[in-house]
Design a protein that fits this description.
The protein is an all-alpha fold and 370 residues long. Helix 2 runs antiparallel to helix 8.
């Protein structure tokens, strides 16, 4: 009798073990959500179109620089300035995709550092021009890219005619501008080529949420791009960063062209598009908002996030178009102070709350202090 009881108990244990082995693993946040469809929307409607536009603009800009260098004139300089403003506004819609082909590789930094570092170092730029020696692959990233080109094209309190005269008189200045335009074109081409090759499929197929997954990479760069607006495009010139004791208006983005507010607006629009999964042309798709709809508590977070986003956009709309941002920081900066407050409030929704609800770890180093 005891023998049969023992066999029965042993059989029960085997059956229980089998049932446990067959039980599905506990599902994570949003595991019933089609992340692959979201990633495909991002790849096809936001990321590839952004790099397509950058590549086209970089090609055109390089060709125009060569034309200008061959025959500098007020008209060709004005055309270059206008083309720079369009291209740099388009860059705002790509700078959150600083991973994969645009990410760090060995000693090379990510694309945003290689072509989007600001403020530009006028000291390094002028030293390179004076010596006639430069290396666009060295560590002096603040002496190349969009913002170094901006300094060359717009100058510092110089008339257009005076700027043209500096190019006419100095072949090194023309050659340096050409070298920066070529570097911008080549780096953009590398990323564009990869996205139009195998990386698109790799990005879509890597649809988990662990560190290194496409969703994790995309989310982290989305948050980092958002924080760069608050911390560096606003916080730095307003004197809010650690170690600062006063405002430093000359540290605004696009200082020499006076395009700071336009670039800020373009960057905010790009961030909102990522949240919504919406293309630059306005085509709605699957974004982080839709992801949240499949997570417990997601609809509540959507409502609070979009309420704060509306407040931020209202504060941005209230910023006067004139004077420039640097001029406002030097004078009445009340609108920018109010905008900075709304950006600070927004951080918890995009960063802490969204990360927690989706179960995606923040992997980049942040000194935001939120």
């Amino acid at each position: 009798m005891q023998k049969y009881s023992f066999l029965s108990a042993l059989l029960s244990l085997f059956l229980l073990a089998g049932m446990l082995a067959c039980d599905p693993k506990p599902s994570g946040p949003g595991d019933n959500f089609d992340r692959k469809a979201m990633l495909q929307n991002f790849a096809d409607q936001l990321i590839q179109p952004a790099y397509d536009q950058l590549q086209s603009q970089a090609d055109q800009f390089h060709a125009r620089v060569l034309g200008f260098n061959a025959d500098p004139s007020t008209q060709t300089l004005l055309e270059l300035q206008a083309l720079w403003a369009v291209a740099y506004a388009d860059w705002q819609h790509a700078n959150a995709f600083n991973f994969g082909p645009a990410g760090e590789s060995g000693l090379r930094k990510g694309l945003i550092e290689e072509i989007g570092t600001f403020p530009a170092s006028t000291t390094k730029i002028e030293a390179a021009i004076a010596s006639g020696q430069w290396n666009v692959e060295d560590f002096n990233r603040d002496a190349r890219g969009y913002l170094a080109i901006e300094y060359l094209l717009f100058g510092q309190n110089q008339s257009t005619d005076a700027l043209v005269a500096t190019f006419v008189a100095d072949v090194n200045r023309r050659n340096y501008l050409a070298a920066l335009a070529l570097h911008l074109r080549d780096r953009t081409h590398e990323v564009w080529t990869a996205w139009n090759g195998a990386y698109r499929t790799e990005f879509i197929d890597n649809d988990g949420t662990e560190v290194g997954s496409s969703t994790s990479l995309l989310y982290n760069e989305f948050v980092r791009s958002y924080e760069s607006i608050k911390n560096f495009k606003l916080g730095l010139p307003l004197g809010k960063r650690p170690g600062q004791t006063q405002s430093e208006p000359q540290l605004v983005e696009a200082y020499y062209s006076g395009q700071s507010l336009n670039m800020l607006k373009a960057h905010v629009a790009a961030i909102e598009n990522i949240w919504l999964g919406r293309s630059k042309s306005g085509q709605d798709g699957i974004g982080f908002r839709e992801y949240l709809e499949n997570v417990q508590g997601g609809n509540e977070l959507i409502a609070s996030t979009e309420t704060q986003l509306a407040a931020l956009k209202a504060a941005l709309l209230a910023v006067p178009a004139s004077p420039t941002l640097s001029g406002q920081i030097s004078g009445d900066d009340s609108y920018l102070e109010a905008l900075y407050v709304e950006f600070s409030k927004m951080t918890r929704f995009f960063k802490s709350d969204l990360s927690s609800l989706l179960g995606i770890a923040i992997t980049f180093s942040s000194s935001d202090g939120d």
